[in-house]
Each structure stands twice: as C-alpha cells, then as structure tokens.
Amino acid sequence: MSSKIRLGILGGGGDSLIGVLHRVASSMYDKYQIVGGVFNPNWENNISFAKTLGLSENRVYIDFDAFIEEELKLPVSERIEVVSVLTPNFLHFPMAKKLIENGFHVICEKPLTTTLSEAKTLESALKKANTIFAITYTYTGYPMVRQMREMIQSGVIGDIQKVDIQYYQGWINPILLDKSLRKTIWRLDPEKGGVSCCIGDIGTHAFNMAEYLTGQEVTSILADLNTRYDDNPLDVDGTILIRFSKYVKGVIRASQIATGEENGLEVKIYGSKGGFNWKQENPNYLYHLTDNKPLQVLKPGHAYNGALSLNGTKLPPGHPEGIFDSMGNIYYGVAKAIRNEACDSGEYPTMHDGVRGMKFIEKCVESHKSGNIWLDI
Ligand SMILES: NC(=O)c1ccc[n+]([C@@H]2O[C@H](COP(=O)([O-])OP(=O)(O)OC[C@H]3O[C@@H](n4cnc5c(N)ncnc54)[C@H](O)[C@@H]3O)[C@@H](O)[C@H]2O)c1
C-alpha cells in the first residue's frame, strides 16, 4: 500500500487559477496522492475534471457536506488525511472549520477567512483538534526568500530599520473599466471576497512577507485605500504605513490597478549593516547591499545557502525554479509535519500567520474608513 499522504481538494477545478499550482506542488516531492474532492459546484464539471485527473468516481463528491459524510464512513487507513481548500474566500471558513472539527489536516488558501472573528474561531478549533493547519502564503517557499529570512534573522544586515514591500498587479484595471465585467469577479463582491479586495488578496502576502522575513510583528498600521470608482465597493489599491517599533518602520504598497503590471511582488529590507532586494518575477536572484562592498548576488542551490534554502532547491544551480517549486516546498513542509518528522518553523505558514493576516486586512479597512488613522494590530 502506498505510504503517500491521501490528499483531498476542495475547489481548484479546471476553471480555477490556483488549482494547478497545488496539484503540481503536491506531486513535487512524491509525498502526496490526490484521492478525491469537490472541484466544482457544478456536478458535470466536477466529475469530468476529476476524470481527467484519473480519480476514482466514488471519491468525488457532489458537495462539501457529502465529502465529509462519506469520507468519515471510511476506515482511517483509507480516509483522506489532508484537504486543500482552494475555493473563493467566503468558503474557507465553513470548510476549514468542519474539516478541523472532524480531524482532517488542512492546507488553506489565503486569506484565511473573510472576517477576523471567523479566523479566531478557527484558531480555537485547531487548538482543540491538534491537527496540522497550513495557509499558503506561497512566496515563503522560494529558496532565496528562505535564505533572506535566515540571513536577516542571523544578523547579516544588522538591526532592521526599514521594510518596503510592494505588490503591484494591473489585471483589475480593464475589469473596472467595463461595469458588466465587474459582476463576474468574486474578488470584487464583498459577500464572496470579504471586506477587502486588494489588501485581502495581495496586500496580505506583502504583510506576511514582512513578518516572515524579519521575525518581528507589525504593531501598528495606517492605511490609505482606493476603490477607484464610487460604485466599486472594495479597495483595488492601497498604501499602508507599518510600524514594528519606534525606530523600525516601513511601507506596504499594493495595487491591482497598477496598469500593465503582472505579479510584481518586490521586497526591500534595510538594516544597520546592509540590505536585501528580491523580486518575485525574478526569484532566483537575491541582492545583498552594503555600505562598503560591491553588490552581491546570491542564487539558489549553492553551498553558501542555509539548510532551509537548500532543502527547497531540487536541481543544480542555474536551472531556474519558480512559483510551482515555491508552493511545492510548502507542501513538503506540511508533509513532514503530518508525518511527525522534524520540520523548520519557516517551512510552512501556520494558523497564526492566517490570523495575523486577517487582523491586518480588517485594521487596514478600519484605518481607511476612520480617516486614515493609526491603529494597533
Ligand atoms: N497563494 C496565492 O498566491 C494565491 C493565488 C491565487 C489565488 N489564491 C487564493 O485561492 C483561492 C481561489 O482563488 P482562484 O483565483 O483559484 O479562484 P477561481 O475563481 O479561479 O477558482 C475557484 C474554484 O473553486 C471552485 N468552487 C467554487 N465554489 C465551490 C464549492 N462550493 N465547492 C467546490 N468548489 C467550488 C470553482 O469551481 C473554481 O474551480 C482564493 O481564496 C484566492 O485568494 C491564492
């Protein structure tokens, strides 16, 4: 019998953006086997997509309730062990809650939920369940992000003094310009996306990156958001000042109306002895700056990198690895945790990161609506 972890998937069907990333990631280290799930609320689409994956029809369910009911009837040795929740945001909470309460491990897409209160409920449920919960802040899986984290936290750039993280996309711009298209996008619908579009969707990645890399928590924020049009209910752009402490400050800039931008996540972190620049669209290059030496460029797979970075590189240096590998590295970390193997704290983002993300989103919206005031998080 296969020793692979039995994986179920909710959402992520053939029509989705993120499904393929999770399927490839789950296969990358030969640790998981996709067994079943609910890929689409439409049965025809659901079953036909499951067939293209070669899944057994009796493990493809008409909806989430049937998934839980039928899986629980199976002996533990056959039951799905971990479930990836890849649906639009509003379904993360009800699905994750029931999964946790019924003993499944969960890999949940971000943002964790649509409200902070839901996030806290999940956090309490997880404490009782003692199962593994990961949230896929995908970019933490890149080898050079992990290397940057290790070097920052071991003091290579000294004491952090400035954090500047930008996440610019432009894809919503043409959708906003055409009112009929706006209704087709769940991210712009508060019922489905939550209280925020841009900050919830991508600002939260930038926020997570700030805390993941520095190992410090943001203590307060001031947000200036932009919905761009009166009849658009949710933000599509935002600039957020962040403070870690009195002398450690920074900015998060996120936009989905940065016309023509693709997936421009860019990290700039400066300390008393040096700085780092890293760009998601060119992820195998980490730039190390100092006052008095030439610019250094670090790349994956070389022995000068630390263990966590090297663990996430599968090919010799010079073979570019990208977003699939980054997500694959997170799945690898979760597999180790599920199998009770030694696992570094930087290997996968946890429930704590998900709750922090929801605090950030809600406080940004509150700060903006209250006249751009500083709020503690
Ligand atoms: N980590 C990342 O970098 C990243 C990137 C993109 C999206 N996401 C997150 O992934 C999630 C999905 O985003 P997306 O862009 O793939 O959305 P999408 O709209 O492209 O796909 C959603 C999928 O969920 C399915 N679905 C909808 N309702 C369902 C239900 N009741 N049961 C089962 N399946 C259902 C749809 O059929 C579709 O296959 C969101 O929470 C989003 O924030 C994360």
UniProtKB/TrEMBL annotation:
- Which Gene3D superfamilies does this entry report, sorted A to Z? Dihydrodipicolinate Reductase, domain 2, NAD(P)-binding Rossmann-like Domain
Q: What are the GFO/IDH/MocA-like oxidoreductase domain coordinates in residue numbering?
A: 145-276
Q: InterPro entries recorded for this chain?
A: Gfo/Idh/MocA-like_OxRdtase_N, Gfo/Idh/MocA_oxidoreduct, GFO_IDH_MocA-like_dom, NAD(P)-bd_dom_sf
Q: Which residues form the Gfo/Idh/MocA-like oxidoreductase N-terminal domain?
A: 7-135
Q: What is this protein called?
A: Gfo/Idh/MocA family protein
- What is the organism of origin for this protein? Gelatiniphilus marinus
